[in-house]
Amino acid sequence: MSIREERKTEPVEEYYTWTGKARGWLLKHLPADKLLPQDQPSYVASWIYVFGMGAIVSLVFILVSGVVLSLNGPAWYHVSDFGHFVNSVHLWSVELFFMTMVVHLWGKYWMAAWRGGRTLTWITGMGAFLVSIVAAFTGYLLQTNFDSQWIAFEGKDALNASGIGAWFNVANLGQIFGFHIVLLPLAVGAVVALHVILVRMHGVVPPIDAAETDAQLSGPDRTEATR
Amino acid sequence: MSAPTMSRSDRDGLARRPWRGTVREYDLFKELTVALVVVGLVIVGLSAIFGSPDEPSVTLKSWAQAEPADFVATATAELGGTSETAGYGPPYNTTADATQTIGAFDLQSFSGVQLPIDTAKDLVITPLTTLNAPPSAALDAWNAASDTEKTDWTAAYTDALTNAPDGDPAQVVTGDYGPVPVLTDALLTMASQGALDGVLNAQQSFYNNDYTRTILFLGDGAYFGDLATAAHLTGDQWGMMNETGNTPGQSWLWLFSFWYQIEPFASAPNADLLVVLLMLVLSVLLTLVPFIPGLRDIPRWIPIHRLIWRDYYKKRAAGRG
C-alpha cells in the first residue's frame, strides 16, 4: 500500500468536546501554513507592508521599556540616569509606534483592505489605534513632572464634560497608574493580537480590481512561484 | 469577463478566497528579526540623541515663593467661592448652570458630584487648622460669620488686591476684610514653607496618590497657566498635542486639538463637549468605513492603490499586451 493510499484510509478525526471543537475550528481557519507562512502572493511587494510590522516591533519596545519603568515606579526616572534613558526609549518607541501605525492605517485605507471578509480586521485595527491613544494619554499623565500636571489640568475638562471625569480622574495618579500599566496594555495587546490573527487567517488583500483573467492568477505562469 | 465590467461582489469573491496565483518567498520570523534590529537601533539612537524632557513639577511651595501675590489672590478666591474650581460644577460641586450642555443633553450633571470639593473649607480653612500654631482667632471669626459676611469680605479684599501695586498684600489699603488677610497670609506662609503641599496631598492620611485638589488649586491661579503658556501647552496653542521643550508630544491628537483652534468651537462655552462628541462620531465613522457607501469607495476613485501595487498592475498590463 502506498503512502497516498494509507492516508486515504485514515479515519476522519471527530471533535466531540469543547476543546476538540475549538481545535477543529482553529485547524480549519488558522492552519499552520497560514499562521506561519513561507510565501505570500506576489502582489505583496511594497514598502507599505513594512509599517504594520514596524508598529508591532515598536509595541514590543514599548512593553519592554514600560516593564522596566514600572518595576521602579513612576518617579524613578527623575533620579536615575539609566531610568531616564529607559524613559526616553519608552517615549521614542511610542512615537515610532504611532507613526508606523498611522502610515499602516492610511495605507490599508487606500488599499480598501477590508474587502473580501476582512471587515473585522479593519475594525480591530482601528480599535488598536483608538485604545492606544488612551494608553498613550495615561502615559503622559504618569510623567510626574510639569507636563503631566498641565495635561491633568487641561485634560480634565473634556472628560468632565463627557461625564466620565470622576471615574477616569486624570489627577488621580494611583488610578491612572493602574490604567496605564495593567488595563490599557492588556487591551492594546489583546486587540493587536486579534488583529494579527485575523490578518493571518484572511491573508493579505489582493489588489483592487484584480481579476481571474489576470496572468498572475490564471496565465501561463500561474503555478510558477516567483522565487 | 474583463475586470472593468465585474461587479464588486465578483471582485470581492476573488479577495475572499485563498490566493491561487503567483507567490513570492516570505519569511515572517526573518522580517520580525530584521524589524527588531532596525527599529531598535532607531529607538536607541533617538533616545541617546534627543533623550526625553523632564520639566520639574510645580508645587504650591514654588508657586507661593515665586508669585506670592497671585497665590494670595487665588486663596482669596477659594475662600470667597469665586475661583474656577468653586464655580466648576460636577464632579466637584453643584454650581448652577456651570455644566457644558447641548440643549438638555447634560452628561456632566448626569455624573453627579463624585469628587466633592468645598474650596474654602478644603483648600484654605482645614489646612490651616493642621498648623502647630493656627490663626485661631481668624479661623473662629470666619467660621462664625454668615455667608453674606464671607462674600463681602472676600469681594472687598479681592478688589483691594487688584488695586494694590503689583497685587502686593502688604500694600493693600485699609478696609473691612474681616479675617481674610490673616487667613490668606497664614496660608501663604504655610505654602512657602512647603507644609501646604503635604497637607493637601495627604488629606489626613499617610498614603495618597490623588492630586486632584492640588492640581485644581494650582490651576485656579495665574502662575500655573503662565508657565504652560510659555511652554506652548495651552489649549489655544494646540497644547494637548505638545510636549515641553522641542520633543514631539501626542501628535496623534492633532485633529482633537485642531477643533479648539477654529470657530464655532474656539469660543463655544461647551467646546469640550462638542469636540469630544465630534471626535467620537469621526472615530466611529472611520471604524465603520467598510459599511459606509461613499467613504469606502474613495480608494477606488483616487487610485493610490495603483502606486502601492504598481508591480501587479504593470505585470497585468504586460500580460494583456
From TrEMBL, chain A:
It catalyses: a quinol + 2 Fe(III)-[cytochrome c](out) = a quinone + 2 Fe(II)-[cytochrome c](out) + 2 H(+)(out). InterPro entries: Cyt_b/b6_N, Cytb/b6-like_sf, Di-haem_cyt_TM. SUPFAM superfamilies: Transmembrane di-heme cytochromes (SSF81342). Pfam families: Cytochrom_B_N_2. Its EC number is 7.1.1.8. The chain crosses the membrane at residues 44-69, 89-107, 119-142, 177-198. Keywords: Membrane, Transmembrane, Transmembrane helix. It comes from the Bacteria. Residues 22-208 form the Cytochrome b/b6 N-terminal region profile domain. This is Cytochrome bc1 complex cytochrome b subunit. Its cofactor is heme. The keyword Membrane applies.
